[in-house]
């Protein structure tokens, strides 16, 4: 009997990272206010250039404060005309691209171009805003709001390109430029948001036209007005001055944290001299360890690279327990001061500044301040949701931990005590024994190129009528990348899609989506969207093979990409992924469900050598095992979410010192019932990029919240035809194309027919 796809649609959910993926993206990533893209959790879906980590991007005039940029006073004004003319001739960033869709011409852009180009673009938008503020005519939507929406095109375009490299290919030259660009961007954002002459015009339009405006005009006015008031434009003068100081300090600290993480991860690399210690990895895994060692300086013949999460995927295969312990400890101690890097002094300062900012704005804590603009609305709703999840999860967690330890004791002896670095290893062995299935059995069927073309693109064609064509004539920022035309069913060009899938020392961890340019009917701009992941690239001449989790990550990040590519909005500020964090992860998590639909699965899951489809029996074993010992995936996510909320529900005086921070985390987890030695948070505070370097502060719950929405969407597709164009076109029209032009709960209800999200489906899908 064939296994129903929807039974497994969201099993074994994990945040990859980032927009946004923001960042987790993503998991997921960094995302500006209003949403850039996403850090998926390690994305996190990410969204600066804050990608959706799912990292995401937003018009910089609405986003820079969320971008995590450093800040100091901006010195100097516009360059003289002669100097600017000379620079324009030699600086390709300061003139429009001649490539399709105004795509960045990376073949001409030099690292030294960014600083002068962004300086000039800031001066350009400063002049545009001054012209609006100095207008003697009565403020109207057209001469104030629309004029502001149309300003800053060059600044957004250039900074989007720059911050893509900050995340994905940060060379020493880019990092040096960031040290100067960050302060300028933050100072300009302060200058704009606290420009009272300018804000009075915005407020006048809001007070006099909001009730009579319709559609996207009304929504644009609302978003811009609330963006200014949320930043502090209504504060008294002395509080406004302090808010600007906080923004400067916070941006500088967030950049410091963001720069520290990849360096700390590289420093934490575990070096191995004896190949025998790598037993269990197989020939391919050992070859990857050798390749990684060579690319990182060759301190030893082999090395194990530390990923951005607490648990390391390699622990599922390593037979050497002492090496497993070394790898795990390298991960958890990467930034706690045990070694060369200590992030605690940085994060406690960020937490204290955020708490102070919230109090200046009249809120009890930063979480309350931040959640006001989310679907969840307040901390009570978030904690009620989390407690419902925890109540269902805890009994399963305890039973599964006991079962794994008892299984290990059969071979290791009755005195054996399971440690965190053992769990993945014995879980994998137990799965192999009880399910007659190993992840290694299916890996040859997940060739990255086939997953992309025969899986992701195929599903998008079946559901939305899209087609894709590789463009080798359009340059990207790295030689490993590919670029594709995206065409609608009628042959119209919709977007460009860039994919950057392989890890390298200059790329931060996780997976995310973002955009070089967002869709805008008003600007007649097609979206230029990109996905970034961190997969190990196979040796030359061999196919890159993925795990099932990595396959889902690709589908996830492409879900964010679809949200950006299928946008059909008038205004740039409202388009694509410019939605709240707890909604932006829904399209990406829903898109994961197509990975296991039999028709799609059989189309891409083909053996890398024979091109034969995966045998039905093996496919059913794999899908049937997705919820095997599933409590871990939910538990690490819940724990990370509670760490995030604990830090952001503090007043300034309650923020712990750097020395107290580790104990604070343990206490917070214990109080909510999640302190579990066996299931640590997916990220501990000292390396939790989503909340300190990205846009997910008090927002990591979004991955689970959005997953509820995604399961509800999948249920609707199941009932009406998972691969039918009619349902796909309906989903595209009612949700994916709408951006932030409508109330998000309204468009969700309009599509599903539900008055409110139903959490029962998530618990069932999670095997709880």
UniProtKB/TrEMBL annotation:
Cofactor: Zn(2+)
UniProt key word Magnesium: no
Domain Peptidase M3A/M3B catalytic: from-to ranges: 315-767
Keywords: Hydrolase, Metal-binding, Metalloprotease, Protease, Zinc
UniProt remark on cofactor binding: Binds 1 zinc ion.
Region (Disordered): 15-41
MF terms in GO: carboxypeptidase activity; metal ion binding; metalloendopeptidase activity
InterPro entries given in the database record: M3A_DCP, MetalloPept_cat_dom_sf, Neurolysin/TOP_dom2, Neurolysin/TOP_N, Pept_M3A_M3B, Pept_M3A_M3B_dom
First-level EC class: hydrolase
Name of the protein this chain belongs to: Peptidase family M3
Top-level taxonomy: Bacteria, Pseudomonadati, Bacteroidota, Bacteroidia, Bacteroidales
């Amino acid at each position: 009997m064939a296994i129903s796809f929807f039974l497994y649609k969201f099993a074994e959910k994990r945040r990859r990272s980032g927009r946004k993926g923001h960042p987790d993206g993503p998991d997921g990533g960094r995302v500006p206010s209003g949403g850039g893209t996403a850090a998926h959790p390690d994305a996190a879906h990410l969204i600066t250039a804050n990608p959706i980590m799912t990292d995401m991007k937003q018009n910089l005039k609405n986003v820079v404060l969320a971008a995590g940029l450093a800040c100091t006073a901006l010195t100097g004004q516009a360059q003289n005309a002669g100097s600017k003319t000379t620079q324009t001739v030699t600086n390709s960033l300061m003139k429009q691209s001649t490539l399709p869709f105004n795509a960045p011409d990376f073949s001409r852009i030099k690292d030294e171009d960014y600083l002068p180009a962004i300086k000039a673009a800031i001066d350009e938008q400063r002049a545009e805003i001054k012209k609006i503020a100095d207008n003697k005519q009565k403020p109207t939507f057209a001469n104030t709001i629309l004029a502001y929406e149309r300003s800053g095109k060059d600044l957004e375009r250039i900074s989007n390109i720059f911050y893509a490299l900050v995340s994905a290919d940060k060379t020493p030259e880019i990092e040096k430029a960031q040290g100067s660009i960050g302060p300028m961007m933050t100072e300009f954002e302060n200058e704009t948001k606290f420009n009272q002459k300018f804000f009075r015009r915005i407020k006048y339009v809001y007070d006099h036209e909001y009730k009579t405006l319709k559609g996207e005009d009304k929504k644009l006015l609302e978003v811009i007005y609330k963006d200014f008031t949320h930043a502090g434009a209504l504060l008294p003068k002395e509080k406004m001055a302090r808010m600007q100081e906080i923004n400067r300090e916070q941006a500088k600290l967030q950049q410091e944290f963001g720069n520290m993480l990849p360096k700390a991860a590289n420093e934490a690399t575990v070096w191995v001299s004896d190949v025998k210690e790598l037993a269990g990895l197989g020939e391919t895994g050992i070859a990857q360890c050798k390749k990684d060692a060579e690319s990182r300086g060759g301190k030893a013949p082999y090395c194990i690279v530390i990923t951005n999460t607490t648990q390391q995927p390699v622990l599922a295969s390593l037979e050497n327990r002492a090496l497993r312990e070394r790898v795990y400890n390298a991960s958890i101690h990467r930034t706690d001061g045990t070694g060369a890097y200590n992030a605690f002094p940085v994060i406690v300062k960020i937490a204290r500044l955020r708490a102070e900012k919230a109090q200046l704005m009249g809120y009890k804590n930063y979480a309350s301040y931040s959640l006001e603009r989310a679907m969840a609305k307040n901390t009570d709703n978030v904690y009620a949701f989390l407690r419902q999840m925890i109540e269902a999860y805890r009994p399963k967690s305890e039973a599964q931990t006991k079962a794994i330890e008892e299984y290990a004791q059969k071979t290791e002896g009755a005195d054996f005590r399971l440690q965190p670095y053992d769990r993945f290893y014995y879980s994998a062995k137990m799965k192999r024994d009880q399910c007659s299935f190993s992840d290694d059995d299916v890996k040859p069927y997940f060739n990255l190129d086939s997953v992309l073309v025969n899986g992701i693109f195929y599903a998008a064609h079946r559901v939305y009528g899209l087609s894709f064509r590789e463009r080798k004539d359009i340059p990207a920022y790295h030689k490993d990348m590919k670029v594709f035309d995206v065409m609608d069913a009628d042959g119209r060009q919709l977007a460009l899609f860039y994919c950057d899938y392989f890890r390298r020392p200059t790329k931060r961890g996780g997976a995310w989506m973002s955009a070089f340019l967002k869709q805008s009917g008003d600007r007649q701009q097609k979206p230029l969207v990109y996905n970034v992941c961190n997969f190990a690239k196979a040796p030359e001449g061999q196919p890159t093979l993925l795990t099932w989790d990595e396959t889902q990550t690709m589908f996830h990040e492409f879900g964010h990409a679809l949200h950006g590519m299928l946008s059909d909005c008038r205004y740039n500020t409202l388009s694509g992924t410019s939605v709240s964090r707890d909604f932006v992860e829904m399209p990406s998590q829903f898109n994961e469900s197509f990975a296991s639909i039999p028709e799609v699965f059989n189309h891409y899951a083909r053996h890398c050598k024979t091109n034969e489809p995966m045998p039905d029996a093996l496919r059913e074993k794999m899908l049937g095992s997705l919820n095997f010992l599933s409590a871990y995936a939910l538990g690490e996510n819940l724990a990370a979410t509670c760490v995030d909320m604990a830090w952001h529900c503090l007043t300034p005086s309650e923020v712990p010192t750097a020395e107290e921070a580790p104990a604070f985390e343990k206490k917070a987890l214990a109080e909510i019932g999640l302190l579990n030695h066996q299931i640590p948070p997916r990220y501990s505070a000292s390396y939790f990029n989503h909340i300190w370097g990205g846009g997910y502060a008090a927002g990591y719950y979004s991955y689970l919240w959005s997953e509820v929405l995604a399961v509800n969407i999948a249920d609707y597709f199941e009932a009406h035809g998972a691969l039918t164009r009619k349902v796909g076109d309906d989903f595209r029209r009612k949700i994916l194309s709408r951006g932030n032009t409508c109330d998000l709960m309204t468009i969700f209800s309009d599509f599903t027919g539900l008055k409110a999200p139903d959490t029962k489906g998530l618990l069932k899908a999670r095997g709880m």
